Amino acid sequence: MKVLIIGSGGREHAMAWKIAQSPLVSKIYCAPGNGGTKMEEKCENVDLRTIEELIVFAKKEKIKFTIVGPEVPLVEGIVDEFKKNDLKIFGPSKKAAALEGSKSFAKSFMKKYGIKTAEYQTFDNADKALEYLKICTYPTVIKADGLAAGKGVVICHNEEEARNAVQEIMIKDIFEGAGIKIVIEEFLEGVEASILSITDGKTIIPFISSKDHKQIFDGDKGPNTGGMGVITPNFYCTEEVLEEFNKDILEPTLVGIREENMDYVGTIFFGIMITKKGVYLLEYNVRMGDPETQAVLSIMESDYVDLILNALDGKLKNYNIKWKNAHACCVTAVSKGYPGKYESGYEIKGIENTNCKVFIAGAEEKQGNLVTSGGRVLNVVALGNSLEEARKRAYNEIEKITFEGIYYRKDIGLRSDKNNL
Ligand code: AMP
Ligand code: GLY
Fold first, then answer.
1. 229-263 burial, b for 16+ CB within 10 Å, e for fewer?
2. What is the structure's pLDDT at 216?
3. CA-CA distance, 71 to 69, in Å (whole number)?
4. What's the gap between Cα 90 and its chain centre?
């Protein structure tokens, strides 16, 4: 069968690599893909950008199913459009994708179904928001309602910072429409975990837990990025934590999905905060995480295609996902300047000398060479019998890779003091 993957990051390269391992699949098209998917077995990049172009292509090539990497097309309703054309697609409907596309919608859903989450207020009027800042407790968390490429959340330590955030988001409209509404939320103290999972709308099966590292610098310092590295499993996700997560978050989420008649066959990604008061849901994402996917799919033993086909057929109930008895460590190398302005166009050398999988994110192939083209450039993923072994290997291998201005964190997978519960 032929599969179409939409997206162009490290996440999509990891999906293509994993899907290519399935004996069920003969051909994978990546739209638009990147320098890594271009070289992957069974894969071909296709330069299709609009939903209309993708639909025409999927029909013409008799694509068995399409899988969507990033959130933007999902929130725009690509799944509904494919279904109108009788095309199989793995992802939530537009209505369900609002769980990521609108923070106020997600929070009201969480409240309605008793999902454990931070207290919050929603504002669509800047004066009222500014008034509220006089009486709220600090630190407080201000979130743009809509999609803001992971930059829409500001933690404010006092009223002045909070007033600035409201000014920027609501009045200056720096997120171009995403901040017409905001959510102001109780600050939670704890450690975070990413729980990717798969749903057919009737069952949700959580994947192995993982831990992202969002800030640019070691010790969780500096501005937030899309993600600088991941380990799986997440050492904070003990059995008790996962039990609480199931009871307080996963199960009531499933009830909500059913009650609201959301057409949801796809990935659901829970961003959780483990606190002294229990496990809280920070956010839903309706797609796989990047770089969580690179680590998590690396230790998935099961056939990802078979799993997705079972979800599309509504048969997840008794599906048993198998995981390698291993730890994975993914270290992300970025261009100098990221997450701010960065330069690109530099040749990447040394990948052929590595002894582990390298997933390409922002790099393209030019005359047989890989050349940087994005902020996050590549991800090195190493496995080990222990976290320590996986970390050591990942750092050993990434040292073999060079490009002008290469930067990566040196502390992926280390417990930092701040993170001690
Ligand atoms: P979100 O997009 O909602 O996951 O927020 C992005 C990041 O902001 C999270 O990964 C957390 O690090 C932080 N964050 C979000 N909400 C809260 C909260 N209520 N308390 C503390 N930190 C938060
Ligand atoms: N790495 C976090 C995300 O994909 O949202």
1. bbbbbbebbeeebbebbeebbbebbbebbeeeebe
2. 95
3. 7
4. 16
H-state helical runs in 143-288: 159-166, 239-245, 251-259
**CA of 48 relative to ligand 1 center, distance in Å:** 34
Q: Which atom of ligand 2 is nearest to the CA of 11?
A: 4
| Angle ∠(339,294,9) on CA atoms, nearest 5 | 50
Lowest mean pLDDT among 8-22, 172-186, 362-376: 172-186
- For residue 83, pLDDT over 90 is answered with yes
Task: Please tell me the predicted confidence (pLDDT) of residue 252.
Answer: 98
The answer as to CATH 3.30.450.20 being correct for domain 125-180 is: no
Q: Quick one: CA dihedral 274, 279, 280, 285, positive or negative? A: positive
Which residues, other chains included, contact 303 with Cβ-Cβ below 8 Å and sequence gap of 6+?
Answer: 21, 22, 23, 24
| Nearest CA, atom 12, ligand 1 | 192
Mean residue pLDDT across the chain: 96
What's this model's pTM, rounded to 2 decimal places?
A: 0.95
| Ligand positioned closest to the Cα atom of 147 | 1
CATH class of 2-93: alpha beta
Mean pLDDT, rounded, for 216-242 = 95
Ligand 1 atom at shortest distance from the alpha carbon of 150 = 2
**Could you tell me the end-to-end alpha-carbon distance of the chain, in angstroms, rounded to an integer?**
47
Using the predicted structure, report yes or no on whether residue 419 has a pLDDT greater than 70.
no
pLDDT digit string, tens, across residues 224-236: 899 999 999 999 9
Q: Please name which ligand lies nearest the alpha carbon of 148.
A: 1
CB distance 212 to ligand 2 below 6 Å: yes
Ligand index nearest the alpha carbon of residue 100: 1
CA distance 234 to 213: 11
Q: Which two tokens stand for residue 206?
A: 């959580």
Comparing CA positions, the residue from 369, 362, 365, 395 lying closest to residue 380 is 395
For the chain, the structural domain boundaries read 2-93, 125-180
Distance 288 CA to ligand 2 centre (A): 8
- Residue having the nearest C-alpha atom to atom 4 of ligand 2: 289
